[in-house]
Design goal:
The longest helix has 23 residues. This protein is of the alpha/beta class. A 7-stranded mixed sheet has the order 1-2-10-9-6-3-4, covered by helices on one side. A 3-stranded antiparallel sheet has the order 5-8-7. Bound molecules: 6-phosphogluconic acid.
């Protein structure tokens, strides 16, 4: 079910909420949207610049995208892959967001190696951020995939970092409350400049923070980073399963 719920309005377009009874249906639908958007961006602008989410939630989405029924219809040679954030660890480290995407997707599709733009988690964070900012550049990303932590963080933008809402840098160095501590992340400026932002939120552990984010989305001064994701002109989609949506305000079915 896709809906435009009350109480989720933000300063720009209201987000579209895609609620699915189970994660399998959610990942199918999200993969379809991602694949379609890659094709549309490639057709419209000759290339698609996609930033992948980290954490564990997106793994099934990446595996789904690597399956032939979708992968054969994605113009991989017109796709440039970035990351929404990275832990400051080596690319071989088990906590590496690059490694997760490599194993779940990139090793299984014909994307040219030169079009994979990882954050160099193995070098000093400020240097990694400067290098990555050059890679990302100033053009809007076509799509940013995001997860959400149980504390309402997204990418590696964590609550209670006062400068967060005012930081105009496209790439930032942050510190996580849980290891790996040092992080490099897209900043809100780069995320909110994207043409399409897609959140993936799955499981009962996200029900309370998701409800709090929903409440804060209508606020002019949200506290949780996930509620600060309000694309300036792009579209915002939330893919949530029933377990994560259990505490959401009533959703109006999209007409
Ligand atoms: C990261 C992610 C982070 C993640 C949330 C949710 O590097 O950890 O960018 O923002 O999306 O922490 O993580 P799970 O999907 O593992 O619950």
């Amino acid at each position: 079910m896709t809906s435009q719920p009350t109480g989720w309005t933000s300063s720009t377009m209201a987000p579209s909420i895609h609620r699915h009874a189970d994660p399998v249906a959610l990942y199918d639908a999200a993969a379809e949207m991602v694949a379609t958007h890659i094709r549309q961006a490639a057709e419209a602008r000759g290339a698609c610049r996609l930033a992948l989410a980290g954490g564990s939630t997106p793994r099934p989405l990446y595996r789904r995208l690597s399956q032939p029924d979708l992968a054969e219809h994605i113009p991989w040679k017109q796709l440039d892959v970035f990351w929404a954030d990275e832990r400051c660890v080596s690319p071989e480290h088990e906590a590496s967001n690059y490694r997760m995407a490599q194993e779940a997707l990139l090793d299984h599709v014909p994307i040219p190696a030169g079009q994979i733009h990882r954050i160099q988690g193995e070098i000093e964070p400020l240097r990694a951020a400067a290098h990555y900012a050059d890679l990302v550049g100033d053009d809007p990303l076509d799509m940013v995939l995001l997860g959400m932590g149980s504390d309402g963080h997204t990418a590696s933008l964590f609550p209670d970092t006062p400068e967060l809402g005012h930081d105009i840098r496209r790439v930032v160095v942050t510190r996580s409350p849980v290891p790996p501590i040092d992080r490099v992340s897209l900043g809100l400026t780069a995320i909110n400049a994207a043409r399409l932002v897609v959140f993936l939120v799955v499981g009962p552990g996200k029900a309370a923070p998701l409800a709090e984010v929903a409440r804060q989305l209508a606020s002019p001064a949200p506290r949780l980073p996930a509620a600060m994701v309000r694309p300036t002109s792009g579209a915002l989609h939330w893919f949530v399963d029933d377990a994560a949506a259990a505490e959401l305000p009533e959703l109006e079915v999209e007409t």
